[in-house]
Specification:
Strand content: 5-15%
Oligomer: single chain
Low-confidence stretches: none
Helix content: 25-40%
Length: 202
C-alpha cells in the first residue's frame, strides 16, 4: 500500500502517552507501544515529517501510521495555547483518526496554564478538538486518563481524575463520540495485579 493512501491515527495527550527516547527506557507512554498491536512485522519510526515540534514521532506499518503528538505536562488548555493541535490539524486528512486523552494535568490547580474545571474541560474538548477534527473529516475518539497507582484500604484501585473522566463519558454520550474508558480499564488491571505487582508498569 502506498504511504499516501494510509490512514493515520493521531494521538494528542500528555506524558502518559508520549514517546520517550531509548535513553529513558523502560519509561514509555502507551502511544509508543500502540504500533505493536497494529502489526506483527517490521515498522518504521521517524520524526513526524509535517510537525514543527521535536517530540512528534510517527510509527509506520504496511497499512497504517500512528502519529504521536503527545507531550508531557500538557492539558487540553496549554496543548492548544502552544499551537500543538493546530500543528496536528494541518497534517490531518479525511478519514484519519484522532485519539484524545487529557485529564492528568488539567486537574493541577498549582499550574494555572494547565488547570481547567471539569465543566470547562468538556467544552474545550468539544469546541477546540472534536469540532475542528470533524470539520476535517477526521474521526475523533475520547480516551479517559489512565489510572494512577493508588489503592484504597480494600486494595482497590479506582479511576483517577474521575471528574474529568466523567466529563469525557458525558460528552461522548451527548455528542455521539466513541469513548475508550482507559481510566476504568487500567484501574481494574491494577486491582487485579495488586499494589506491589503493578509497580513495574509505573
Amino acid at each position: 500500500m502506498e504511504t499516501a493512501k494510509k490512514k493515520t491515527i493521531f494521538l494528542v495527550s500528555d506524558s502518559t502517552v508520549q514517546s520517550y527516547p531509548r535513553s529513558m527506557a523502560p519509561q514509555c507512554g502507551w502511544g509508543q507501544l500502540l504500533v505493536k498491536y497494529m502489526t506483527t512485522g517490521a515498522y518504521r519510526v521517524y520524526h513526524s515529517e509535517n510537525s514543527s515540534f521535536a517530540n512528534a514521532v510517527t510509527y509506520e506499518t504496511d497499512t497504517v501510521k500512528i502519529d504521536n503528538r503527545a507531550m508531557a505536562g500538557r492539558g487540553a488548555r496549554n496543548y492548544l495555547a502552544e499551537g500543538r493541535f493546530d500543528d496536528c490539524l494541518a497534517a490531518m486528512r479525511e478519514d484519519d483518526w484522532l485519539l484524545i486523552q487529557f485529564g492528568h494535568n488539567d486537574a493541577y490547580k498549582a499550574k494555572p496554564e494547565r488547570f481547567c474545571e471539569p465543566e470547562e474541560f468538556g467544552k474545550i474538548l468539544w469546541e477546540s478538538y472534536i469540532t475542528p477534527a470533524r470539520e476535517h473529516g477526521v474521526h475523533p475518539v475520547l480516551v479517559t486518563p489512565i489510572a494512577m497507582r493508588e489503592f484504597d484500604e480494600d486494595m482497590i484501585c479506582r479511576p483517577s481524575f474521575n471528574e474529568y473522566r466523567l466529563a469525557m463519558l458525558k460528552l461522548g454520550k451527548e455528542r455521539n463520540i466513541p469513548v475508550i474508558d482507559l481510566g476504568l480499564l487500567t484501574a481494574d488491571f491494577n486491582t487485579k495485579l495488586g499494589p506491589e505487582k503493578c509497580k513495574h508498569i509505573y
